[in-house]
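Entries read chain and fold; for instance:
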Amino acid sequence: MYDAVAQVGLENGCGSVARVQHITQYDMAVVHSGFFSAILLYHSHFGVVCSRAELEDYAFFWRVLGHLFGVADEYNICAHGLDAATTACKEIEAEVTWKALRDPQDGWKEMSDAYISGVNLFLAGGFPVNSTESLVAFRICMMGRNVPEWLKLTWLDRCRVWMLKVAALMMRCLPGFERLLNLLAFALYRHSVRLVSRQLESYAGHDFRS
């Protein structure tokens, strides 16, 4: 069908037709891993203290979510237990994540900055609490690798990385701090839901693109 559409476009005088890219089960599995692999592999870096049984429950939880997202069991990284999931996530980290971070594709920085600006808008009303450089550096530190040469960290970025490390340490070692952060996160969630509701109401009767 897609070949036919492309041929029709060429016959109608279109000089070029955008190449169709299909989303495969492999693509979905890799994206799926991006949502949970950091916690699975480096939970202590996020201040998480848990047992093996709890990690097994975590893997099963993401197996179910992967199924709901349309990832077939034969491609679901979490379908074969904690050890298999850990091994697969390590392989993806080495063969996909790290290779991509060493030599990012064109447009990666713009997309990352747009995403981080949205995170900052959600967390702090737009105040630059996070930056692309600091979060990438924090993730690379977890992997035990050196920051690539292209990633230039300002003194403020380095402060952001250390703030993340200190927050994780406090969650692990300071009683009550984790609960305080959970309460703040829940309050932030409720605030965000109200904000989104007001924004949707403001669009009533209008085109979202206007």
